[in-house]
Amino acid sequence: MEEKRLEIITKTTDNGIKCKERERGKGRRALLLAIGFWIQGLRCYPWMGVIFFLKDGLHVDPSTLQILQNSANLPMVAKPFYGLLSDSFYIFGQHRIPYIACGAFLQAVSWFAIASIPPSSITFFTITINLLLGNLGAAIAEVANDAVVAECAKQPTGADLQSFAWVAGAFGGIMGNLLGGISIERLSSRTMFLLFGILLTLQFFFTISVNERSLDLPKNKSNHGIKKQLSDLLLVLRKPEIYQPISWFAASCAIIPALTSTMFYFQTQHLNIESSTLGISKVYGQVAMLTWGIVYNRRLKSIPPRKLISTIQATMAVLMLSDSLFVTGFYHKIGIPDSLYVIFVSGVLEVLYYFKNLPFSVLMAKLCPPGCEGSLMAFVMSTIALSYIASGYIGVALASYIEVTENDFSGLRKALWIQAACTVVPLFWCSLIPAGPKVGVGKKEK
Questions:
Q1: Is residue 77 a contact partner of residue 386, using CB atoms and an 8 Å limit?
Q2: At 94, is the secondary structure helix, strand, or coil?
Q3: What distances in angstroms separate CA 287 from CA 168, 347, 389, one per listed residue?
Q4: 340-365: per-residue pLDDT in tens?
Q5: What is the mean pLDDT of residues 76-102?
Q6: What is the C-alpha to C-alpha distance for residues 422 and 247, in angstroms, rounded to an integer?
Q7: DSSP H helices in 209-304
Q8: Which residues, including other chains, have CB under 8 Å from residue 419's CB and lie 6 or more apart?
Q9: Cα gap 26→97, rounded to integer Å
Q10: Domains of the chain and CATH, by start
Q11: What backbone torsions phi and psi does residue 408 show, to the nearest 5 degrees?
Q12: Which of 145, 241, 365, 381 is the most exposed place for a label (fewest CB within 10 A)?
């Protein structure tokens, strides 16, 4: 009797210790992801310095600026390769932490390199090369962070992790844009690059100090090698419930001609909007993203993805039509200052493109088979990145065709009408988006 009692006490104690270890692991995991996604959102801070430097320092035109912004994102397209690597190759017994650390290191090197180039020697080419290196590091880190979220999404305690990551990224965007708008007027671009490089260095040292075994990640080890992992990914991508929503989402982004740089020049060159106002506009947009993440997590998760994503797509088209009225001076004539419209409407429209990413990412994370999280989620993210790049290039072609330049914005209204019309088109085949994840979809076929 006494032995049984001691055995029960021992088991209870062991279970208590294990529960405490799991709780600590979840805390460390949350901190790691919070820092990772916060840094990801904060990347807008040095990029604001890049945009104003290219515009005012190197005097590039809107098309060249947009081409650079989109071309610099090309490393994001190779995300499936990074995902396959992180799923297949373990470094010192870890397959997420080393990749997050590597991503932070490459980004730090990139921004330190740009900051160290003398102003007289810096060129469009050198900036492009270093931005490509920085985005390579960002892509690797994002893949590893997304894989951790996807791994934990199916656990009862990890259901809200996607929204948590979204909120952390939005919070970083708020800080980055707010500080960026202030820093543009008070600091040099080189100082902004240096400060962000230091922050990435701190992230690198924090990441390597974390042991992946202490993060309470699901036991989904996949040591089959990259060939087997690629075979599994291709097998999953053959499923209609996987490839159909991915195809719709990619097309719905790519088909919209992005006019971001053209609107930036219209606001700064034609309307003489100050950089601080643009910074506040972007902050307001990030606050909208943060609010969206919270509202989605608390109120909208139960809404079918098809209905929610389609509603966002339609709202984008409406705001684009509103922008066409803005460029004709309609709102100014009825007493609404240009700066006020830029802050409250343009700021929201700029981030509204990304609103549908959250419900779509949650849907794909639920559909993602165990052991394939890194590669499938990376494929999804790379497809989205490629679609946004295509959108940027199409926007450049549209602006050139309508002959919108940094000094002539007479055709901008027509370009916005075309943009709004292209936004509506994907709604006609939104049936490709499932109403919700089906039971059994997330299991790998044998």
A1: yes
A2: strand
A3: 11, 10, 25
A4: 999 888 888 888 878 888 889 888 87
A5: 82
A6: 16
A7: 226-237, 240-254, 260-265, 275-295
A8: 256, 257, 259, 320, 395, 398
A9: 15
A10: 18-432 (1.20.1250.20)
A11: -130, 110
A12: 241
